[in-house]
Each structure stands twice: as C-alpha cells, then as structure tokens.
Amino acid sequence: MRTVIQRVLSASVAIGGKTKSAIGPGLLVLVGIGHKDDREDIAYLVKKIAGLRIFDDEAGVMNRSILQTGGDIIVVSQFTLMAATKKGNRPAYVAAAGHEKAIPLYEGFCQALSEAIGKQVGTGTFGADMQVSLINDGPVTICMDSKNKE
Predict the structure, then answer these.
(1) Which residue ranges in the chain fall short of pLDDT 50?
(2) Rounded Cα gap, residues 5 and 140, in angstroms
(3) CB atoms within 10 A of CB 86
(4) CA atoms of 62 and 52, how far apart (whole Å)
C-alpha cells in the first residue's frame, strides 16, 4: 500500500458536485492498493499514520500526533499512486489491485484507522470520479509505502 499523507487545515471530497466528506484540521490520506497488499500492510500503515508526529506542539515543533491533537482524517482511494513510470510517458497501473481485492482492503484500512483514532474517518467513494479540495498546512506532505519501510 502506498499513501500520501497531508497535514491540512481543512479538506473535503465531493462527487458530482455534492460534498461526501469534509474535515477541519487533521490529515488527508490518499491510499493506493497493490496486488500484494494484505491486512499486514493495513496494520503497519495505520500504526504509523496514527502515531506520526507532524503537528506542532506549544513550542512550534512538529512533535504531536493526530491522536494528541484530536484532529480528523479523510481517506481517499487513489489507484494512480501505484503508477509505474519507468518506461515512456504513459503511466502503467498494472500494480494496482482490482476492485475485488482493493475494495475490502480500502474499507478495512478506513475501519482500522477509525478504530485507531477513536472516531470515524471521512471517505470518498471507491472508484468514483472525486474532487478533492484541501488547504495544506505547512505544507507537510509525507509519503509511505508498506513494502518499502524507510
């Protein structure tokens, strides 16, 4: 699983001009799911995201997690995170899992993240054409790949 985590002042997801989810301060998490991903990838990323210290403390140092700030999270599925760009100019998405595998893992990821932070995370709709709006705070943007643990 690949994620892009953005610290935001606000974020929202709309589908067909109608807002599906909206949050104030917190995290926007874009998630791509690959063929080899499973529940272990979910557990790894949920633990890392919930504990990620990217929010300022009283001294202005990034030393607090979403758990400590009480912020909200929106999770948006994004198969394009699995793009292979090594050859040519057209990205290949062969590493992205198909709907039959990706939907249960996406839903499991959202559920596990909700449990980890003690509140429901906002979501988009898997496979929908979504419009994602955000005000990035910082900006702070972190990429994580459960298969490439750096």
Answers:
(1) none
(2) 8
(3) 6
(4) 10
CA atoms within 13 A on the CB side of 2: 15
Active site members: 78-80
d(CA 100, CA 92): 19
pLDDT tens track for 36-56: 999 999 999 999 999 999 999
**Residue whose structure tokens are 């039959």:** 100
Tokens for 125? Answer: 């709709």
- 3.90.550.10, 3.30.470.20, 3.40.50.150, 3.50.80.10: CATH of 2-145: 3.50.80.10
CA separation for the pair 37, 28 (Å, rounded): 21
